[in-house]
Amino acid sequence: GPAPPDQLVQKPLSLSASTPRIGRVGDAFSCGVTLTAAPDLPAGTAATVTLGLAPATSQPAPLSLLETNRTLSLAPSQTVEVAFEMRAVAIGSAVLTARVSASGAPADALELKLPILGQQPPVQLATSRALVATAAPSLWREGISLPRAVPGSGSLTATFGAGRLPAVEAIASALLRAADPSPPDAIDGASACLGLVGAHAALLPYAAGRSVPSLGAAAALAVESAAAPLEQLSNQYGLHNGPSAASYAAEHRTCNTQLTALGLFLLRKLALAGRLRALPALAALRASWTKALAGCLEAEVAQAAARGHEWSDFSSLALARLALGTEWQPNDPVTAAALSTERLASSVDSLSASGKAAFALAMLLPGSPGADAPGFAPVDLPDAALAVLRYLASSLRVRGRSAYLAAASGSANDAGAAASSYALAAFAAARAAATRGATVPGEVTANIDKLANGLAAYSSHGGALPLVALALGDYDIATSSTDASVAITAFVGAKRLPGPLGPASASAAPTLKVTTAAPPPPPLALAWAALPPSPPPFLVLSSGHGEVSFALAVDFVPFDLFEEPVSRGLRVERVIRRHDAGLDGPVGPPLASVPLGAIVTVTVQLSSVDALHNLLVDAWLPAGLEAVDPNADGGLGASRSSRGGGGVVPLYAAWGSGCWWWRCTAFSRETRPDRVTFSASW
Prior knowledge:
elongated, 28% strand, 8-stranded antiparallel β-sheet
């Protein structure tokens, strides 16, 4: 049949890109296009290549062209690389436009994109503060001092949020998913059941302003379905993790003190929210668990006395007091003295951070669970509780916008989610006491908003998640943030910042509205280029009710570079030298520039005074250097010198009847367009 003939259409001159993958601020390099002439191009044709920059979306422009035009004479089928000198001056994305004309007539055009990166990683500095809104507008002033930054990097970002409801809802959803009773009596494990109790109790304070109303209803139904499994996992010795654990406890007459105490504490939170009376099955379990826990403690004291020892399990006693109340007393005078709140207070120094926090919280709750009722807040601060709160406040480790509770005085280790939860709940109770006239030193509650921020990040600590959600709810109750609604207007000096409610203007409308029930508003961002060299203070005008978390962050790439390697326990040095194919290695002195087409060897040397684990090293590439991937076939990819430190294996040696081994560091390498990454587990 008929078929159309092939027709070849060819431009007299054609362009193709000849640019590096990336550039870095400060790099001076030459690149451009590859120019190819058609076979039928007349010999000696004059070709003019023009290189330009598209208008930059930000100032200053990322790239500076040192030359823009080049004229040359071409022969038919000739290929020539046309390079232009340029310098990277600012972070951003540069768009180059290349055009070529033959004897004055346009022949081809090309657009080239070249990302310009920084010479070192970005740095973020932030400060945060909790702003308590009132009906009358109040002003907060935050001073700003901008460090030297690489052009095109600096930004100023303000973030606002009211209440911790999003975190509480996320935790409650996770607890509901973990249990997922289908059918209702299929919940397995006491921890899953107690998670449902904690989820329901944590959501109750937000009933008036919940962003996900269906979540509260789901939690209410789930907590009712948890009663039957909890009853099956309980006996005269309290609550147990599973049927086998319950059988073992009955046979050996042992009690899971911590689990039973946790269950009683969660039921106390339901009672304090006014919900326990509506759940008779759980109220009955409360009575049986109370009897079991009290009986277990009394039996342990008696057993210790029979062996001639003094009972001193104060960690269990702190949790038991949190569950049973500080006024609970056994009938036997000797046992009552051993388990007394006074003895626990005198031994508080021996407690862990979690035990101290549980004791402080127990001192700030009603003395008897029978007095648990909605709206309770302590009216004074006992001396024993205040002393522990001072210690806990001194153990907070602040990290920018968040904080965590240290495991011990002088330690940097995190005490864990449970300890931080008890501490936050105790701090919140102290803050509530202050609103009722109690004297609470300012340093005790100075950083609890940051502790709440840090605690909201404990998303993976499943066993403590109910405590986390409850503590966050306690904080919102103490700060009147369960239904917060705050209008925010932000200024930098006299400049009003734009926001979701409209552009900057003299309008009386606030920049943004922050409420507990709605998701946090988008951050307010301002480029440093929009600020004067000595910027005025950042001003926040707030009005409404509740507490707003305000964080101000500066994000930038530092301008100043260290001329010599800096040692902070780890010293990193890099040198670039010419590669010798015959020696398969580097030769000659270090290079400051590399000619086109040259092959070089980059050597990275690490020096450490200590053994390191999980080390990651990024060797950043400048403009024009293309790293050879050792995983690629052929070329240097298969050579010995380019393996990036890999290939070292452990050495084994016989020694007597056994053997020992010496492990050498072996790096794994990953090649990327802008860097080569080395990682080692040891």
